[in-house]
Design brief:
single chain, 631 residues, alpha/beta, eight-stranded mixed β-sheet, 32 strands, binds 5'-O-[(S)-butoxy(hydroxy)phosphoryl]adenosine
Length: 631
């Protein structure tokens, strides 16, 4: 890359451009926008279909769009089956390293065997097409097998991040009405065992629909198994019924592939629905073009499969594109802060995709942990989850990427399925900007009157058209989908992501962060209302308000304002107790950094908590318009 100091931009060198899968942006972008359906149909031709679609886009039931209507496809047919007929059969699909140093690899042939076995085990437990299986696992290959096994037989997976508490898990199992839960006896994290099975045991007590829990053995620690409900995967896998042959189910393009729960500004987490057809097309196209995927690439998406990043770009897209996935179980700094760099060197990783939080976290240990390793295999870097601050961008670029790897700062969401605003390797880069909309995506930044803002001014980010990765809806809640994403710009038919942004003279988009009551903490998405609800379940709390405040590593820290019931008084002990309470209700990621006791919260006359006033006060900023503030 070369740096133009006057413009503050980083330009790709000829070698990057020469090998890029996309050589030109503007013209191709224009034509993709003018005729998105033909653009996406052309991309869909890269996949194998049992039957081609009758209609590229069916918009007869807006905003529940149906892509590739009438088509028959299965994502696993594309992610595994088709590779078995080519030289890819013998190529590595997965390289996995456990935190404790265990290493396992699977060729595409072996992946197919493991997934087929898992699929037959699920079938033997009565799992049928359309059933929702909840997966709550550590980052081990079986987590990926379980996901693919569900998809293979047309069942739907709902992966719950292994860092969530039993409360959060049980809420998600209940909403999905899962009969079968897949878990493990634990996983390694920072040298300790993450006790997943006990959490499942506790969670399923309040889930009347759960009949079967399948447990994969990872740590061999003692776990409680209930007879007639709990089965060890290794026992089931050795039965004749778990044969290594399993037909892939021919699903409709618009059949559900998975549910993934994500936080919004109000109420409970929402189960976002993604489907086999449009999702496969969207993620494989974005992955191939943005990460410039080559057949020999070893691709590492350092996210947990429990989040959308893991679903789209750790599991499905790289497999569809026939790359080799690298997967790591544990903490980035275990046993030392060079763990990641050591693995990149050892396995010759070509592309690293991670979050600003992880970068900032590793940056604080200093550059020498990185530079002692030969990272010359790296060709491209990626960032996702929150805005990347230019300081972290430059460290990533110069220390990790040795000034030769472009950084793909990809903006997207659980709802969008895949990258929406992102550079391409051929584009000049501006640190901190996610650059431009991907092909087929029309993005804009608008003011309160829905008019485009002037360059440099802040406004609401909107998406003005429809794309195949867009979620098909929220599970069991049609109205919420409409209300959350489409109500505000009903007239225009735009999608509302809930982020604020700026757009500069060159058309580069700078995403600033959430403009609703969603908080990104270490890239994790949390709803302020969920944390507040968790606080209120503590006997001492009457009312609570939660706000994000800037944090050096985590991006945002959680600050909670709490009003106590009569008879309780503020103390250090109570503060710790409340923090731990939230952590056990929701999971450690939601643990507040700060609890502030107060006698009252600022509210509007209609009783709504004015979080922006709390935030402005905490930051010592102007409190803005207070005319609606109650006396
Ligand atoms: C929210 C979506 C999409 C995978 C991980 C997060 C923020 C995401 C960026 C980026 C600035 C970003 C937004 C968005 N976000 N990527 N590159 N630059 N902000 O998915 O958990 O659904 O969160 O993450 O605020 O709305 P998610």
């Amino acid at each position: 890359m070369t740096f133009d100091e006057r413009k503050g931009m980083y330009y790709p060198t000829d070698d990057i451009i020469d090998q890029a899968n996309v050589k030109e942006y503007e013209k191709r972008y224009q034509s993709s926008i003018e005729n998105p359906e033909s653009f996406w149909a052309e991309q869909a031709e890269n996949l194998v279909w049992y039957k081609k679609w009758d209609k590229v886009l069916d918009d007869s039931d807006k905003p529940f769009y149906k892509w590739f209507q009438g088509g028959k496809i299965n994502i696993v047919h594309n992610a595994i089956d088709r590779h078995l007929k080519t030289a890819n059969r013998n190529k590595l699909a997965i390289i996995w390293e456990g935190e404790n140093g265990d290493v396992t690899t699977f060729s595409y042939h072996a992946l197919n065997r493991e997934v087929s076995k898992f699929a037959n085990v699920l079938k033997s437990m009565g799992v049928k097409k359309g059933d929702i299986v909840t997966i709550y696992m550590p980052q081990i290959p079986e987590q990926v097998f379980a996901m693919l096994a569900c998809a293979k037989i047309g069942a739907v997976h709902s992966v719950v991040y292994g860092g969530f508490s039993h409360e959060a898990l049980s809420e998600r199992i209940r909403d999905a009405e899962s009969r079968v839960v897949v878990t493990a006896d634990g996983g390694y994290r920072r040298g300790k065992i993450n006790d997943l099975k006990s959490i499942v045991n506790e969670a399923v007590v309040r889930c009347p629909t759960v009949e079967v829990v399948i447990t994969v053995r990872r740590t061999r620690q003692e776990v409680y198994m209930e007879s007639d409900r709990d089965y060890w995967y290794h026992d089931l896998e050795s039965l004749p019924i778990a044969s290594i042959k399993c037909e892939t189910e021919e699903t409709d393009a618009n059949d559900m592939l998975f549910l993934l729960y994500t936080s919004g500004s109000t109420g409970k987490p929402k189960g976002m629905i993604h489907t086999h057809g449009g999702y496969s097309v969207y993620i494989s196209t974005t992955h191939r073009l943005v990460f410039d995927i080559k057949p020999e690439d070893r691709f590492w998406c350092a996210a947990d499969p429990g989040w959308i990043t893991g679903h789209s770009y750790m599991v499905y897209a790289p497999l569809i594109n026939g790359a080799t996935i690298f997967m790591y179980e544990g903490a980035p700094n275990h046993p030392y802060p060079n763990r990641w760099w050591r693995m990149i060197e050892k396995y010759g990783i070509n592309i690293l995709y991670t979050s600003p939080t992880a970068i900032r976290g590793l940056m604080r240990y200093g550059s020498s942990w990185v530079t002692r390793h030969d990272l010359s295999s790296l060709r491209l870097l990626g960032s996702v989850g929150e805005p990347i601050n230019p300081e972290a961008w430059r460290w990533y670029y110069s220390v990790v990427g040795n000034e030769k790897c472009p950084i793909m700062d990809t903006w997207w969401q659980t709802e969008t399925g895949g990258f929406m605003i992102t550079p391409l390797p051929i584009m000049p880069l501006k640190p901190g900007s996610a650059s431009k909309p991907f092909f087929g995506i029309e993005a804009g930044v608008v003011d309160e009157n829905h008019q485009p803002v002037k360059p440099g001014e802040e406004g609401a980010l909107v998406i003005k058209n429809i794309w195949p990765g867009l979620a098909a809806g929220i599970y069991k809640d049609r109205d919420k989908f409409i209300e959350t994403y489409w109500k505000k710009y009903e007239k225009e038919g735009w999608y509302l992501p809930g982020d604020s942004a700026r757009i500069d003279e060159d058309g580069y988009i700078w995403v600033l962060g959430r403009s609703d009551d969603v908080i990104k903490v270490s890239g994790y998405r949390l709803g302020t209302s969920e944390i507040e609800s968790a606080l209120i379940t503590h006997p001492s709390v009457v009312e609570a308000a939660v706000i994000p405040l800037p944090h050096n590593i985590k991006g945002n820290a959680i600050h909670a304002f709490v009003v106590l019931k009569d008879g309780y008084s503020a103390s250090r002990e109570l503060e710790t107790e409340l923090k731990n309470h939230v952590s056990s209700e929701m999971g450690p990621i939601a643990k507040p950094d700060e609890i502030l006791f107060t006698v009252a919260l600022p509210k509007t006359r209609s009783g709504k908590i004015m979080r922006r006033v709390l935030k402005a006060r905490a930051l010592g900023q102007d409190e803005g318009d207070l005319s609606t503030l109650e006396e």
